[in-house]
Amino acid sequence: MPYEITWEPHGAYRKLSGFVSNDDVRKSFTELHEDDRYNTLLYILHNSSEVSGYEYAKTDVTLLFANHLGASIRNPDLHDLVVNTDEAHIEAIRSSMPIKLLPTPVEFFPTLADARARIAEIVAQSNHP
To answer: N or C: fewer beta carbons within 10 Å in the chain?
Structure first.
């Protein structure tokens, strides 16, 4: 399976690997958004550092993030952290119009350790049980 979701005490870890299709990304977001835990997450850590290739077009990315934007209404304090060094993919995400409307900015990190350090800050600054 090109994606795996692990629920953590304060968030979710979404790992993508291998060749990832639009359908894989859509299914993984749907799985996150439809779970009741989504409403109280502090973060989603999207790790795509092991992706070998993507099937996507700008319109697909825009639609996926439009759906994510709609879900963010339920949890406006959610932080999206992305581990990725593929500049083309990062630019595709950044140029997506809906992503600019998310309540909190999407943050990009070159390593999982860097993203985990940011998560520690987010958790420390929260009132999350």
So the answer is: C
